[in-house]
Design brief:
Blueprint: H1 2-18, E1 22-31, E2 34-42, H2 49-65, E3 76-80, H3 91-96, E4 101-110, E5 113-123, E6 127-134, E7 137-144, E8 148-153
Parallel strand pairs: 2-3
Antiparallel strand pairs: 1-2, 4-5, 4-8, 5-6, 6-7
Helix pairs in contact: 1-2
Length: 157
Amino acid sequence: MSNVVDTVKNIVQPIVDEFNFELVDVEFVKEGKNWFLRTYIDKPGGIDIEECALISEKISEKMDSIQPDPIPQMYFLEVSSPGAERPLKKEKDYQNAIGSYVNISLYEPVNGEKMYEGTLKEVTEDSLTVTIRIKTREKDMEFNRKKIAKARLAIKF
């Protein structure tokens, strides 16, 4: 499905750029028997529902005009904000998240755990340093970026 995602990103990016929005992510996923094309957009100060509707309309028009159809099967188009738990995908996302509370999911366990939450302290080309709270003390943990399956902002409770 990465071909579909890459194709859609190339179609959607100019539309999003036209409105000075940021294309955060595109997903093409099957849930039950339905396919969903999800596009996440943002801008400084956040995106609102009218802006999502506008971009959805523009994407729909563009997708319908392309022959052959880049996605031949039926699907639902969804355009939304990435939300409070925004995924960290691009280098800029990681840099902007320094000092923020994050959730890191790993491909393989480290110290018996595959998921960590804490404050993102440092970002380098090869690693992330996250300050983790273990009971009453804090500990800095360094994660190799190649071993991170997903990273996102998190809400601290």
